[in-house]
Structures are given as structure tokens and as C-alpha cells.
Amino acid sequence: MSIIFVGLPGSGKTTIGRQLARRLGLPFVDSDHVIEERLGCSIREYFAREGEDNFRDVEQQVLDDLTQTHEGVIATGGGAVLRPANRQHLHERGHVIYLRSTPEDVYRRVRHDTARPLLQVDDPMARLRALYGTRDPLYREAAHFVIETGRPSVATLVNMITMQL
Ligand code: S3P
């Protein structure tokens, strides 16, 4: 059984997941990292070359494997909840935490980050609002509880999460 983080890109899944794992003395894994190891290239390159559908196939396979084998903390990619099968597997096999951030919060954190293909567009703020609109209900469906990431520090968020576990 794992603790699994879902949320928009830039919501803090990796940062908070890593800290929580350290606090609990559990192994941490980032599914995007496992995907890149499996692909042998960056997600950004793969997205550009093979398209989103092919990326989602690999992502689904990796999530299926990790949710069956990893005993610890898992940070997922922001689109991990898009496929119904993924939402079901995450929810049934782990304790899923939705790190909810507003599009404005996310934009503040990721605006200088060039590694996120979905945000490499002319109007990233409009893109984030659209992503939030589509995905917020899907993150909620997959999750067992929601943590609002707006103001608190990483340490405070980790404390809040340990109290909910
Ligand atoms: C994606 C988010 C990324 C990565 C891929 C697709 C998305 O992960 O999986 O670029 O669809 O939101 P992060 O949420 O870690 O940026």
C-alpha cells in the first residue's frame, strides 16, 4: 500500500512527497522519473516525437506497475488521473492525496520551468485554467483527501498530511 500524490503540474507532488517519505522513513518514487528511465529519453522529447496518446500508454503501464509493487510514497504526473483505469487503480491500491493548487499558485511556481511540455504554449495561464477546470473533478474522484497548498510552507503541509494518515 502506498501514499500517492495527485495534482496539477507544479502543485508540489514531488517536493512534498519526498519530504513526507523522509519523515515516515519510506521509499519515494516519482512516476515521471520511472517513465523517463523506461523511455530512455525525457518526457518532453517523447511527447514531441510520439504524441500525447503514446505517452499516456506508457504512463498507464508504469502507474499500474508502481501501484502494485511500490510500498512507500509515489508522486504521479499531473495527467495521471485522465484515464478512468488509472483513477480506479490509484484509488483502490493506495492512499491518494490531492494537492490542490489554484492555476495562479501553479503559474507562480512553474513559470520559469521549461521541462513541462503542457505549459510550453503562448498563454500558459489560460492553459492552466483549462487544465484545472477539466482535472479538478478527476483529482477529487481519485483522491481519499484533499490538501490545499496555497499558503502553508512545505513543512507545514507535510505536518498536515501526517495528521490525516
Ligand atoms: C503532465 C504532467 C507532467 C508529466 C507530463 C504530462 C500533465 O508531470 O507527466 O509532462 O499532463 O499534466 P508533472 O505534473 O510532474 O509536471
Automatic annotation (TrEMBL):
It catalyses: shikimate + ATP = 3-phosphoshikimate + ADP + H(+). Its cofactor is Mg(2+). Mg(2+) binds at residue 14. GO terms for biological process: amino acid biosynthetic process; aromatic amino acid family biosynthetic process; chorismate biosynthetic process. Substrate binds at residues 32, 56, 78, 135. It is an enzyme of class 2 (transferase). GO terms for molecular function: ATP binding; magnesium ion binding; shikimate kinase activity. Keywords: Amino-acid biosynthesis, Aromatic amino acid biosynthesis, ATP-binding, Cytoplasm, Kinase, Magnesium, Metal-binding, Nucleotide-binding, Transferase. It is found in: Cytoplasm. Its EC number is 2.7.1.71. Pathway: Metabolic intermediate biosynthesis; chorismate biosynthesis; chorismate from D-erythrose 4-phosphate and phosphoenolpyruvate: step 5/7. It comes from the Bacteria. Belongs to the shikimate kinase family. Catalyzes the specific phosphorylation of the 3-hydroxyl group of shikimic acid using ATP as a cosubstrate. Monomer. This is Shikimate kinase. It comes from Limnohabitans planktonicus II-D5.
